[in-house]
TrEMBL record:
Taxon lineage: Bacteria, Pseudomonadati, Pseudomonadota, Alphaproteobacteria, Hyphomicrobiales
Domain Guanylate cyclase: 110-217
Full protein name: Adenylate/guanylate cyclase domain-containing protein
A Pfam family recorded for this sequence: Guanylate_cyc
PANTHER family: ADENYLATE CYCLASE, TERMINAL-DIFFERENTIATION SPECIFIC, ADENYLATE CYCLASE, TERMINAL-DIFFERENTIATION SPECIFIC-RELATED
Amino acid sequence: MPKFLRIGIHWSNVSGYTSKAWCVRRVGSVVFLKWGAVEVQGAGAGRKVYWTHPPQEKTVRCGTAQRAQDYMKAAIARRRNHRYEPLAGAIALQRRSAVAGAELKQALATILIVDIVGSTAKAAKLGDARWTKVMGHYYAAVRKELKSSRGKEVVTTGDGVLATFKAPVAGINCAAAIQKAVRTLGLEIRVGLHAGEYTMSGGEMVGLAFHICTRVAAKARAGEVLVSSAVKDLLKAQSQIRFADHGNHQLKGVPERWRLYRVEG
């Protein structure tokens, strides 16, 4: 059964970076669909996906096998246009609950989110085979720079990556290095950084800071690195890093307005 995953943020569970999974299967002239909200834990080969609620199901009777095949192809094309990525692994029915009374640990981190600009158009232009190869080089380049900067990859989001750093200067330097590396692949990225607290609960990261960082990244244009005022305030003593005021912004779903700054040079 072909499966697809679209990753986004849930307010109540930012750590999992869930969104929706969508599955399709054809048997003769009948197409079976299954979809719903999922939770994603981990990244790369260790990533696990769980339904957060029992998935919805639908049966479509197309009359002929050819019509059913055409229906499947069109449905899969629509999902790819909506930023769904192919999902190879299984989707579990329910994630195991954290051990009762598990200790909650709070930590402060600089959070970085990288996102490719115009990825859908680029993928359509290159075709699936070439785009898959480019994405392989892209993730390799990002992970190389994360390792060099001692960043911790939290999760991948289709064509984006979320990582954390102990120090904001490390996150900013890593963002610049990633930009330089991926330009050789013909890609443009936008980057957002925010500093805030998150909670470790049962091995998971939970916190509004991840949500804010995603909204900061969404405000950036191609080639820009935007940081929140929280990051800039932590870097007052770092004179080698220059910022340009990017204005006061209302971040979707986030209380109050936030002043953002663009990293210069």
